[in-house]
Every structure is written in structure tokens, then in C-alpha cells.
Amino acid sequence: MISAWLWSVALATGVLLIIRLWLILPRNSAATKRSARRHSDHCSLAVFLGSGGHTSEALLLLSGLDFSRYSPRTYIVSCGDNLSERKAIALESLKPVESPTQNPNYSVVTIPRARYVHQSLLTTPLTAAQSFLGAISLITFKSLFSASPGPEVLILNGPGTCFVLCAAVYLNRLLGLPSPQMIYVESFARVGSLSLSGRLLRPLVDRFVVQWPQLLEDGKRGECRGWLV
Amino acid sequence: MSESLDSLAPGSAPSASQVQSSFPSSTPISTPPRIHVFVTVGSTRFDALVHRVLDNDVRAALRARGYSTLVVQCGNSDFDARSFTQEGDIWRRTEDDMTIQVWRFKPSLQEEYERADLIISHAGSGTILDVLRLGKPLIVVPNETLLDNHQEELANALEGLGHLRASTISDLPQAIRTLESTKLMPFPPFNGSRFRELLDEEMGFTAGPGDRS
Q1: What is the ipTM of this complex?
Q2: What homologous superfamily is domain B29-201 in, according to CATH?
Q3: Where does the Glycosyl transferase family 28 C-terminal domain start and stop, copy by copy (chain B) (predicted)?
Q4: Which of A39, A59, A70 sits opposite B211 (nearest CB)?
Q5: Could B129 and A36 be called an inter-chain contact, meaning their C-beta atoms sit closer than 8 Å?
Q6: Number of other residues whose CB lies within 10 A of the CB of residue B189
Q7: Mutation site, A68, A94, A223, interface B, largest B CB count within 10 A
């Protein structure tokens, strides 16, 4: 009797969760567009630097932005990825700031990797869980407990770890917490087939951008504005 | 408006200034004096390419095109170093009309790209972007042993647009002999306004000039 009761509660919770999840998917939620901002407004931004070519492309995307507008900036790097951190700092030192007295307004934070190169599939759930906790502390806890609100936009371009960041954003949305708009930009290297992170994130992110138009020939969601890097 | 903001947009790499200034907008790449060839495998291991560029066929093809110095950045690749003399981190060999240098890594390859008259490379997208933005002739050899071989797709797509020459390990001598660098199409410079406009639009920043308040 009690177990039947527990089962129906679990089932009802599960169904509600699925409905909630379905409702917050980008294609179903009406209010994904932000309200109009004034030219001088600020917008906080976070970007995941996925090492190697991912980092280079992400930083190239950022290099075209108005840094006095997109401020403060948070660079999320995988633990131990010192090269990406150095490249982010290098970009920050190159960009002009609005006034000479103003310091660049950015921070570099780290997150455990979801999966290491050549890591066995058996241990991947463990590292992915660690990584998810890291993403939650960055995205969810920050919006709950921190005085400074979390980022308003999160730029992702792979690889694996960006999926756990997306999952943390969805946790915020499930709980009705503020959450960043997610923009996924597929790599310039992807001409005829999407990357694994691209395929995973395509239905989940708010904007899905590719750099070669043939990737959209399947008619699913996404946009192409030519080469962005 | 986008023009003025473009000038405020340096790239992330140290190459940014050269990217903006050295790229001829619509003129074909001029014929280089064909002296120096640089081979790079980036941070990867690509034994077959390193082995190939050091073999007789490729060296003969390079000589036939007038190249007299060959520098190979071999990364983590294995190669037969027996005929080389090692000085520190560099393996050297001098032949009658060609000097060869092999080394593994340098913090930046930008200087090497700038000095080279021809670059032969793995088909990594970062290398391709860096080299083409300098307006240098490029032959890429996709690494066929990679599992998820999207490098080949990129190489073929860019060859189809005329920006570079895609080759295989076995066809490399032929690619060197028949490369006509003047017929390569210039690669468009970095355009930071595309992503900026996309993001501004997404975040509700209107493009109107009158709303600066």
C-alpha cells in the first residue's frame, strides 16, 4: 500500500519534471528574446574555453565584441588548462577599455573536466558528475547566493564539458532561477557533420550557430551567418 | 558603424595585427621567391607526414620548385634521426642544395609562417586559419588515421573554394610540383562584426545610432 503510494508520488514528480523540462526547451518557451536594451547598457558574459582549437575560436569570437558593453566577462576553463587561461588574459590585455582609468573587468574560473581524452567510458560518469558539481557551483549557486548576478549570456563551442554547463543552466531553469542565454557556435572545422557536443546541445541552447551552411540542410534548428572566426 | 568597431577588434592570437594589415583584400597572392618551406603538425603526432616530407620524393619535388631550406616542426611524431646531427633541440642536416632542420615545438609558430614561402601542414583548423590569414600558399595533408576525420572535410571544402591545396601522403610530391600559388584564392580577413551583431541582437541591443544615452 505504502509502496504503491510512493510509486505514484515518484511517477507524478517524474511526469511534472518532464513537462517542466519540455516547457523550458527553447522551441517551446515564448520569452527567449531579451527585452530591448539601451546602447550604453551592460551585459555580463561567460564563455567556456574548451582548450586547443575550441579556445582559439571562442576567443576570436570574443575579440569582435565591444568589451565595455559585454562586462563583466567570465572565462571558464577546465582545471589545469593554463594555456587557455593565458590566451584569455592575452586577449584582455589587447582589447582597449572604455577609459584609461578603467581596469578590464574579467575573471577566469575553473571547472573539472567532464571527460579526459582517452578516458575509459566506465569512469566517465564519475568525472562528469564532478564536472557537473563544478558547473552547478558556477551557474546555480552563484545565482542563488552571490551578490553579483550570474552571467546573462553563456557562449559555448565544445567540447564535452560545455554539456555539463548547459545542464547546470537547465537546472536553474527548472528551478525558476535566473539563467544565461546560451549560444552555441559550432567550430569552423565542422563542414559536413556536427560535433558530438553540437548534436547534444542543438535542441537545448537558445541560439545554435554553424559556420558552414550545409550543416543546416537537415532542416533542424540553427543558423549560419558565414565564417565567424 | 561596423567599420569603426572592426578596427577596435584585435584577434586573440598575436597574429592579429598582421592579419589585419598584411592581407591583400582582393589581389591574388603574389608568387613567392620559393626559397623556404615550413612543415608543421601542430601539437599532434603525425609520423606519416614527417616521414614523407623527409623522404627522397618530396625533397626532389621541393628542389625542382627551387626550395632550398626545409624546416619541419614535428610535434610528437617519430622520425628517423640517424642522418641528422642534433644541436640542443634541433636536428640538422645539410645536403648539396638543401638545408633541413627538424624540431618539435616552439611557443608560437607565427614567425615560422611569416618566414615561409610555402607551408605544408596537417589539416588542423587553427593552423589553416593562421596560415591563410597571412596569405601564404598552403598544402594540407589530413591525417587519415584520426578516428573522427572531419579534418578531411575542411581541407576538401577549402580546396573547393580555391584557398589551399589538399593532398594525401602519397600525392604530396605531385601536389608540390603542380601547386600554382598565384591561382590560390585570397582568404577573407577576420570579420568580427558577424558574431557581434548576432550577440547584440540576441541580447536586445538595437543597432540604431540614435539611442546612445
Answers
A1: 0.89
A2: Glycogen Phosphorylase B; (3.40.50.2000)
A3: 36-187
A4: A39
A5: no
A6: 17
A7: A94
